[in-house]
């Protein structure tokens, strides 16, 4: 999607009290590692304490939704950033996994009423994934940074206001 | 979709008691800003008080559904207009985000039994988005206006009649 | 879909005690009006009383599912026929709206355990929609008639047998 | 899908105590009739008593999911075989109905925790449907037979073990 | 999807106390048998006891989700590996079954809060399926092995931490 003029944030973000879980798939290691580092770097810049960033892995992207659900209880985090990198292959595996993972991560938010950031690349080529992981100099920034920023923003703005709807007071 | 003869409204609309939340993504700022202004303009025309229009932002369209859910509690609004502008890029990100966001916004209505207006453009080119934001003179009207009108209409006609099904009396 | 031999109904239908809500979108007025009239005509032929047919409108097809849910409570109807006419345009709006509306109408039946008829045309051209509204002489019949008949049939055959699953006795 | 070596059943099936509901759409009558007869024939071969096979119809495939749900209560059956025949036409009706019906039938199983067999043909041509209904000699077997066998197998193997998850003990 | 550098596991896996259900479809027997054996081999390597691996079959992939749900209660397993092999045919059956099965398996995890591994091949040709079953020497490894490893990993890492969200303590 085009990035023609990203609007400015309407609020200062301070992550000093935010606990973040990152759970990443292990396929396409170089790309994943860079995305995870990008997310972590941005979280630290927003004052998230290193101790409050918990990183775990799962085999592939299909495992991300259930693992994300468990991360909230396992590590008492406020938000989870599931990170995966799906690249189109010759079968239809890509299409069905992308679809079910995207929808399951979205829906998970409405089961736990806590934010789950969408850190999954759905690329047609490896080059597209490398670019979005900030691995091709001069092309694109590391998208993990956006996900780190989104995590702190969503917790700050909306987590305190999801109690009534969730039934947890 | 073709606009061959838009049927007339079957009821007068008065928004003087309606509280509206607008939550918009920040990508594609110029387009988004115009859509938000279009929605606000129409709301004011329908007698919604300026104080009863609360506007917030999230990073991208994926964040709209959870933020929309939270807006109801955070600002005690009757309806939310989530506004985003997705434009097809080279990966499959557009397809999976459009699909999950559209379905999550639709489904959210059946979790809270309050209207959520669909203010997300799903365009193949930037020009298509500009036209729908009313930015290309002589082409199309600002679609934000439709969303503002739909918000007042849905609250007026249906919000009082969604209590039994929701279990909130 | 081909209509090669429509099987005969296995039961007489009598709509004299059935209350029907019709909620229609207002885009593509001529087509919509004819579909609504077709549905109403067939309902009357099946002995539904004119007073028991309640007709309302919403702006577009996206609004149909929530409005359909509300119609049950607002007018104490036994079945709702949501009527819309979506025609493919240049963006991807058609695809995402068709998908989310179809699924939401289907799913609504399992939230309220009452029938919701699928009265939404999903056409690639205006001519296809006109034909299905019975507006092109000698081509197709008005599909609204089918929806009216389906409404009475579903209520007659199944509404009394959806109490246990719904938890309403 | 290719049928290269269908593995053998790992258990004897005895349908003598199984009650089966068949609910079929009425479009494409010849095809539907053959599919229903194929299912019934196989059920009888597996010792299902003729009195324990209840057959009803609905207008089209969209009506199958709600009718299937009602069949369980209306006729106290252990399993439902919804049978429909969708054939691609010129609009997008086929795609949206196929998608929503398939997903609704699948999901219904997790609302009632009883098996619902997938007896819906989703064909691009009438000839494909005829072949799958066993109407083209020497081509394919009547798929209704598979559905009848699947119904007895699923009840036998799994119905007694879906009580805890359903909350019905 | 490309397998460029699979990241290392971040934890030792010991399956000696894990009970695993494998439920497989019977279409495409040779491929399925190899996938099942691959999963079993890997489970044994990870110290899962042979007695703790329960294998059953269903007719086709559509039956996998409900059978997977039942396997948890029928055999008191910690995780289920549903194994199926879908290959594109001439109708649209492949597309609708792949979609509904993938989503139903994903969603099942959030009904029972136990892991369900995605062991379904969604291939365009038989050769693609044979390769992924390890049947074409020198091409690909048997994907069943990955599924066995994922089963033990998900139980070990996340099953103890899905109690609160599931309401089962």
From TrEMBL, chains A, B, C, D, E:
Question: What are the record keywords, sorted?
Answer: Riboflavin biosynthesis, Transferase
Annotated Gene Ontology cellular component terms? mitochondrial intermembrane space; riboflavin synthase complex
What InterPro entries would the database entry show? LS, LS/RS, LS/RS_sf
Pfam families linked: DMRL_synthase
What GO terms describe the biological role, i.e. biological process, of this protein?
riboflavin biosynthetic process
User: Pathway it belongs to?
Assistant: Cofactor biosynthesis; riboflavin biosynthesis; riboflavin from 2-hydroxy-3-oxobutyl phosphate and 5-amino-6-(D-ribitylamino)uracil: step 1/2
Q: Which domain of life is it from?
A: Eukaryota
> Top-level EC class, please?
transferase
Q: Does the keyword Transport apply?
A: no
Primary role: Catalyzes the formation of 6,7-dimethyl-8-ribityllumazine by condensation of 5-amino-6-(D-ribitylamino)uracil with 3,4-dihydroxy-2-butanone 4-phosphate. This is the penultimate step in the biosynthesis of riboflavin.
The protein's name is 6,7-dimethyl-8-ribityllumazine synthase
Please name the source species. Ogataea philodendri
């Amino acid at each position: 999607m085009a990035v023609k003029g990203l609007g400015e944030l309407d609020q200062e973000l301070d992550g000093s009290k935010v606990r973040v879980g990152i759970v990443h798939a292990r396929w396409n290691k170089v790309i994943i590692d860079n995305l995870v580092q990008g997310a972590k770097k941005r979280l630290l810049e927003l004052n998230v304490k290193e101790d409050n960033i918990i990183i775990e892995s799962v085999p592939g992207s299909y495992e991300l939704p259930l693992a994300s659900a468990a991360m909230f209880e396992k590590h008492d985090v406020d938000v989870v950033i599931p990170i995966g990198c799906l690249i189109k292959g010759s079968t239809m595996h890509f299409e069905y996994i992308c679809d079910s993972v995207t929808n399951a991560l979205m829906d998970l938010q409405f089961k736990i009423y806590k934010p789950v950031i969408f850190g999954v690349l759905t690329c047609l080529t490896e080059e597209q994934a490398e670019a979005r992981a900030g691995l091709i100099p001069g092309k694109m920034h590391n998208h993990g940074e956006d996900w780190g920023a989104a995590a702190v923003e969503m917790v700050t703005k909306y987590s305190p206001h999801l109690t009534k709807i969730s039934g947890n007071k």
